[in-house]
Predict the structure of TetR/AcrR family transcriptional regulator.
Amino acid sequence: MNEQTGRRERKKAATRRKIADTALRLFLERGYDEVGIREVAAEADVAVTTLFSHFPSKEALVFEQDSGFERGLVQAVTDRHPDEPLVPALRRQIRDMVRHCTAPEAAPVQHLINTTPALLQYEESMRLRHAESLAAVIAADLRVPVTPTACRTIARFSIDAYTLARDSEDPEVAVDEVFRMIEAAWASVHPA
């Protein structure tokens, strides 16, 4: 039973990856607005219903790693060492995300996002959702006794640090610069 479940999950993951890769290839070749969902499904050799069982919208096809990014943010809080302060753990995770999204191979995808209004709007809603998930896990962390507003603020600042750093000339320096400000703000509500 366990082997069968594992095989089923691997097959689902492979189908998801194939759909996302196919969609991204088509979007980069022809433009996001020029490619329809039916075309993506046909090219990936899946039914439209199968495509939608893996991705809730056309925009989600471009942000295939969305759930992994969100999970990484949550785990930065929940999986950190008991003695590790919150802000350095968040800085490390944001730095990793920025490295991933500013790697040379990510440039065509970033250009696609930056030049497609629907994708920019989706990315903004995704960032807000990530900030809310991050705020919830910070608030639930027993080592962090602060108000929900403070948790939401630090979460939003952290997500904004990603955006600011990703779009800067020197992303690594930008992450550190923004997180120095975040650390100062956090210290004002959560003294060590």
